[in-house]
Amino acid sequence: MSPPFVLVVGAGPSGLLLALMLGKQGISVQVLEAADALDDRPRATHYAPTAVQELRRAGILNEMEAEGSFISNGACWRKLNGEFLTGLPQSTDPDQNPNPLLCLPLNKLNVVLHRNLASLPQVEILYSHKVTGLGQDDTIAWVQVDTPDGAKTLRAQYIVGCDGANSQIRRSLFGDWEFPGFTWDKQIVATNTYYPFERHGYDWDSNFIIDPEHWFMAARISNDGLWRVTYGEVGGLSLEELQARQPAKFKAFLPGHPDPSDYQIVNFSPYKVHQRLAKKMRVGRFLLAADAAHLCNPFGGLGLTGGIVDVGGLFDCLAGIYSGQADEDILDIYDSVRRSKYRTVVNPTSSTNIRLLFEQKPETALQDSDFLRACKAAETDPAAAADLAQAAGRLQYDFTQHYRV
Ligand SMILES: Cc1cc2nc3c(=O)[nH]c(=O)nc-3n(C[C@H](O)[C@H](O)[C@H](O)COP(=O)(O)OP(=O)(O)OC[C@H]3O[C@@H](n4cnc5c(N)ncnc54)[C@H](O)[C@@H]3O)c2cc1C
């Protein structure tokens, strides 16, 4: 069998989406996944409008809706006592808001992607295939892979590392510890929790609570009362220590100060929080996308949303090369454009939502934070609201402008 045009390493959301978009164009793709099944941990839930445009291009919005996706009514910022500071509302009417921010837990998005891929004969997903090394020459690229049948070498015209934060592709290209940026000294714990926030006045779907100790986010993620509660914790605690501290944390910061019998936690996962950007997103026939290329805290909308926008752009580049409409140089443009969108992310002093949550004094946050001041202005000034909405669109870039006419 001749090698596929594209080999994607990693069957996370970015790898599956890229395979789907390429496969729908009739392009042969092989996806290699180290695990024996899709990842089910509680991670991304919200997809900003820039990402939703790519999910629409992939043709899966209707199926996402059938899995329970919904249009969030917006995000607000509060003090620990629940006092509302300001918010960014969005219309939940699809006619008024054709490109909304959507909510759907990542495990459900993965199921939709996987189901769609199953109907594409030119896409093959190989589980329990762990990439361990790589190489390339002028004509082809290859990866060394550990498989249940022993070590193999698999080849393709182009190989895309969608293999997440610990990307083997990135480490093989640049070295194990070459991922410029920094890691916060605090950690976060992401939970999926059934709790009636609405009864405590939480009528916004996403709520960010500003507090030096008990900063957290509570966002409704389903229509049956499930909320994502992600909270800050001191760094260096073990899983057991975090679990032991959780009831006291919820008692201290959740509205209504509940006991464990008042809520039900169905997922509990601690995470370190990084802000990092790979040195390059293209090295010859190898490309990086999403978490393999950049990491961002999950409070600022630059996580998978940015990864999905990478994938849409990379799809246009690779499909353009495949059809003869684009030269290979378009991949250098991909590298420079996508990295430029992330430069500020690795600057520890840049203003990010996570910094706002634990650094601002809640009493004066509305005066001290440029971002909250802008949100407050947007409440009454449509031009200020339009400015904020435009800022979110800056992740996008149309690579087809570099096609030959
Ligand atoms: C608590 C939390 C909440 C978040 N919320 C949001 C949100 O609301 N919105 C948002 O946009 N983002 C959010 N994010 C970020 C988002 O979850 C990630 O950006 C996203 O999951 C990254 O997807 P990916 O496909 O790049 O990588 P991953 O999902 O990590 O997938 C990588 C895949 O590659 C496989 N792999 C790894 N190494 C190899 C190898 N050597 N060989 C073969 N396969 C390999 C892995 O097994 C895995 O399946 C959140 C993150 C966290 C932690």
Automatic annotation (TrEMBL):
GO MF entries: 3-(3-hydroxyphenyl)propionate hydroxylase activity; FAD binding
Xref: SUPFAM superfamilies: FAD/NAD(P)-binding domain (SSF51905)
Matches recorded under InterPro entries: FAD-bd (IPR002938), FAD/NAD-bd_sf (IPR036188), PheA/TfdB_FAD_monoxygenase (IPR050631)
Signal sequence segment: 1-19
Keyword list, A-Z: FAD, Flavoprotein, Monooxygenase, Oxidoreductase, Signal
Entry-linked PANTHER family: 3-(3-HYDROXY-PHENYL)PROPIONATE/3-HYDROXYCINNAMIC ACID HYDROXYLASE (PTHR43476), FAD-BINDING MONOOXYGENASE (PTHR43476:SF3)
Protein name according to UniProt: Putative monooxygenase
Provenance organism: Aspergillus indologenus CBS 114.80
